[in-house]
Design goal:
Strand order of the largest sheet of chain A: 11-12-13-14-10-4-15
Largest sheet of chain B: 6 strands, antiparallel
Number of helices of chain B: 3
Distance between the termini of chain B: 21 Å
Helix content of chain A: 10-25%
Radius of gyration of chain A: 21 Å
Oligomer: heterodimer
Number of strands of chain B: 9
Strand content of chain A: 25-35%
Radius of gyration of chain B: 13 Å
Order of helices and strands of chain A: EHEEHEEHEEEHEEHEHEEEHEHHEEEEEE
CATH superfamily of the domain at 9-56 and 148-254 in chain A: Probable tRNA modification gtpase trme, domain 1
Order of helices and strands of chain B: EEEHEEEEEHEH
Helix content of chain B: 10-25%
Strand content of chain B: 35-45%
CATH architecture of the domain at 9-56 and 148-254 in chain A: 2-Layer Sandwich
CATH architecture of chain B: Beta Barrel
CATH class of chain B: Mainly Beta
Largest interface: A-B, 20 and 15 residues
Largest sheet of chain A: 7 strands, mixed
Shape of chain B: globular
């Protein structure tokens, strides 16, 4: 059931998705897989085995130069100059008024070299802002998005599967060399190593957006189909399935991770989204959005909370939140994302609510299409994987 | 198992099986696919009155909410209670075990689509 739109971009893996009977969705100008076999099966596969995602729509922007670190310290909310080579950092691109333009993962991939990964919808704006903000620094900004494909393998079996993929090499090493398994096994969260797949450059990062262990793999669009096929082949015996954006959304929501356009907007200050730790106010120099973050939002600005409900009816984005006690009172918040949690079996949601209603344990009511259903404020995340040593 | 050809269809992607003054209503495979995995169904009370064109059931998937409209005025004679525990029946067998509501008609059925006409509507 494909809504083929002519104005959308296609992933370099499009043919593989069609062959796998994907349903597609228009997402940020891209035609991307929404689901293959079914959102629930894909969701459960990621929690119990592994799922393979095509994230080639994401934006990849390189920042290079002797002053790249200082330039990013000015341009972004985090202290990128403190990130060692080989490490990654979750950070924000803020407007001068402190509003969130995008959330980003930045990899320090080499001396004077950073890879900024942006949401597809914000790619051009992030590149433009980075160019403007780094203009006075010895740094150059290159939007490489069209030349970079991104695959994510996520789930408790992700490492084993990746180790079974033939043709992987480390930089300076041999394909299928003995150094590859050791390096992948020992790669901590939020770190990345450079290497190759079938002689194409490959960045292997232990990052993700599902709440599970896993890897994000950056490589050229030409080599992406071969890696996709190799991962499917290696992973199928472990229970790996291709997974679409529907499962990605329910997985990230269980993991309490914000989504741009839902929890994060230009009207949101980081502290409202619970992201104050991402804003490095201890950076010695100025950065865009600093003054606004230091001042903070109005006292009555809403804050992001987790909500859990009973039964099976989800509170969905845009639904209004009310106090639990009053029948006809004014709304005290609004849902930003919600789903019947496939893993937990009850409704979960994120919402912005007035500060007075944000304390965990607070009873609230959500207007679900005319019926007020009880929800309780709960700390995020809803789901946390057990961290067994593998 | 229903034969898709003997059913009537609406532009809201519902199928209707007419049996005298009783109609059985469900959603089409096309609609079920569009919704994705169905996780909750809100069914009407047996005995309740349904006005033509009014929402009589809600069908929730992980991603969205679909609505079932009464194809004509009627009284709810039966609702498929199995969907309470097995909402996935709608995905597995939309024209059979995934039926939703049975109505005893109190009003006239409007002109409905044939299988061919519905197929043309969804581009098949």
């Amino acid at each position: 059931m494909t809504d083929a739109s002519e104005n959308t971009e296609r992933s370099p893996l499009h043919d593989a998705h069609v062959a796998a009977s994907a349903s597609f969705t228009d997402f940020a100008g891209w035609q991307m897989p929404l689901r293959y076999s079914g959102d629930l099966a894909e969701h459960h596969a990621v929690r119990t085995a592994a799922g393979l995602f095509d994230l080639s729509h994401m934006g990849e922007i390189l920042v290079l130069g002797a002053d790249a670190a200082a330039a990013l310290d000015y341009a972004l909310a985090g202290r990128l100059s403190a990130v060692e080579v080989g490490r990654a950092k979750y950070t924000l691109l803020l407007a001068a008024d402190g509003g969130i333009i995008d959330d980003l993962v930045v990899y320090h991939t080499g001396e004077d070299r950073y890879l900024v990964v942006a949401n597809a919808a914000n790619r051009h704006e992030v590149a433009r802002e980075l160019r403007e903000r780094t203009a006075d620094f010895a740094a150059q900004v290159y939007d490489e998005s069209d030349d970079v494909a991104l695959l994510a393998i996520q789930g408790p079996r992700a490492l084993e599967i990746l180790l079974d993929v033939p043709g992987l090499a480390l930089d300076g090493g041999h394909p299928d060399g003995e150094d590859v398994p050791a390096a992948l096994r020992g790669l901590p969260n939020y770190r990345a190593i450079a290497g190759a797949f079938a002689e194409h450059p490959l960045l292997m990062a232990r990052t993700g957006y599902t709440g599970e262990d896993g890897f994000e793999l950056y490589l050229s669009p030409e080599a992406a189909p071969q890696l996709w096929d190799a991962l499917i082949e290696a992973g199928t015996p472990y229970g790996l399935v291709p997974a679409g954006l529907a499962a990605r959304d329910s997985l990230r929501l269980e993991a309490g991770m914000p989504l741009y356009g839902h929890e994060l907007t230009r009207q949101t200050l980081p502290v409202q989204a619970g992201l104050e730790r991402v804003v490095a106010l201890d950076k010695p120099l100025d950065f865009v959005g600093r003054a606004a973050c230091e001042t903070g939002p109005d006292d009555n600005a809403p804050v992001l909370v987790g909500l859990v409900g009973e039964g099976r009816r989800a509170a969905r984005a845009e639904y209004e939140v009310y106090p639990s006690d009053a029948e006809a009172s004014a709304s005290v918040g609004r849902i930003t994302s919600g789903v019947l949690s496939p893993t937990l079996g009850h409704p979960i949601a994120m919402a912005y609510v007035d500060l007075a209603y944000a304390e965990p344990g607070t009873q609230l009511a959500v207007d679900v299409r005319g019926t007020r259903l009880p929800f309780t404020v709960t700390p995020l995340p809803f789901y946390r994987r057990s961290r067994k040593k593998s | 198992m229903a034969d898709a050809g003997e059913l009537k269809y609406t532009e809201e992607h519902e199928w209707v099986r007419v049996d005298g003054d009783t109609v059985t209503v469900g959603i089409t495979a096309y609609a079920a696919d569009k919704l994705g995995d169905i996780v909750f169904v809100d069914l009407p009370e047996v005995g309740s009155e349904a006005a033509a064109g009014r929402v009589i059931a809600e069908i929730e998937s992980t991603k969205s909410v679909g609505e079932l409209y009464a194809p004509a005025a009627g009284t709810v004679a039966e609702a498929n209670d199995r969907l309470g525990n097995e909402p996935e029946l709608i995905n597995k067998d939309p024209l059979g075990e995934g039926w939703l509501v049975r109505l005893t008609l109190t009003g006239d059925l409007p002109e409905l689509l044939s299988a061919e006409q519905y197929g043309a509507l969804i581009g098949e």
